[in-house]
Amino acid sequence: SKGTYEFYMLKEIDEQPGVMRKLSQDYLDVNGEPVLDQKIVDAVSEADRLYIYAAGTSYNAGLVGKEFFEKLTGIPTEVGLASEVGYHFPMLSKKPFFIFLTQSGETADSRVVLKEANKRGIPSLTLTNVQGSTLSREADYTILLEAGPEIAVASTKAYTAQLAVQVILAKAVGEKLGVKAAKDFPLKKQLALAAEGMQQIVDGKAKFDELASDYLIKSRNAFYIGRGIDYAVSLEGALKLKEVSYIQTEGFAAAELKHGTISLIEKGTPVIALINDPVTAELTRGNIREVESRGAHVISIVSHDLAQAGDTVVLPKIDYLMSAFLTVVPAQLLAYFASKNKGLDVDKPRNLAKSVTVE
Ligand code: F6R
């Protein structure tokens, strides 16, 4: 039940620290070593390439997953939209392994890809929130997201649970393969930082209520910009904001704006800039100056270590590789408050259903 919450979406945003703790407890031992089904770890370890397929928010989680798998396992990883792959299969490596990300486990677009994979004898794993769901039954292996029922149409805690399960799997596979980066990665501590950081952010939600009212609800359009992992989170932030608030929002690789889309920036256009990557932070600061000089109103969401005077939101401390866990929460809260403050039905945006069982 919603309890004292007006909408499930906010309840589910608030539940994320607890989901992180539960996943850490269930999938990591006291020493921080992953405890996953060994058959799954072995099967993934044998692959020469990973292929992640999904739709919508789950696809956006896969874009972050690619970073986890490549950094921690050294296995090249591709991410694709299930709907684009089902009837036009990519060229595959010699030993492919398919990973399906799907909160509901029922998405028709993803099922088409899995059917074809099964026909070709490609091993597969479904990460899903729903035990016994179709994609879980039809894949060789399943890992559950353990996020608890997600009722709001806009996915929040399933996204961060997908991040967590992917990074746990990546660490397990990387360790099995003897990859130093995996052995050295203090995942249990980082997941604890994710949980604590999320808690701090949701405890400060009033700030996002204000930002949404002051800068978003009167706007026709908006942009998210970022580089690297921040680009992946920009796509998710934009999807969240547009689907529940109906403000047309695009997520952009920060440097790409100037290659055309910057012509849409007008006085007051909201640009939400995400900065967590130390390597490209200064470049994104440059992109912020470009849009500001054309009148944009910039909301900057910046990691603890890279923050400067004047930044709008400073995130709690966490490793860059884990930054999506924290960056996405302000994005979820901005979407929630933009929708609520426009008087919309946050949990049931028009034209949308919770699970999409048509192609
Ligand atoms: C957006 C959202 C959708 C789903 C997409 C895939 O908030 O919820 O984009 O992520 O329809 O659904 P699943 O993960 O159930 O396959």
Automatic annotation (TrEMBL):
> How would you classify this enzyme at the top EC level?
transferase
Q: Which keywords belong to this entry?
A: Aminotransferase, Cytoplasm, Glutamine amidotransferase, Repeat, Transferase
Q: What reactions does this protein catalyze? A: D-fructose 6-phosphate + L-glutamine = D-glucosamine 6-phosphate + L-glutamate
- Single GO molecular function: glutamine-fructose-6-phosphate transaminase (isomerizing) activity
Q: Identify the GO cellular component terms for this protein.
A: cytosol
The record's subcellular location field reads: Cytoplasm
Q: Which GO terms describe its biological process?
A: carbohydrate metabolic process; fructose 6-phosphate metabolic process; protein N-linked glycosylation; UDP-N-acetylglucosamine metabolic process
**Active-site positions, per UniProt?**
354
Record's function text: Catalyzes the first step in hexosamine metabolism, converting fructose-6P into glucosamine-6P using glutamine as a nitrogen source.
Q: What is this protein called?
A: Glutamine--fructose-6-phosphate aminotransferase [isomerizing]
- The species this protein belongs to is Lactobacillus corticis
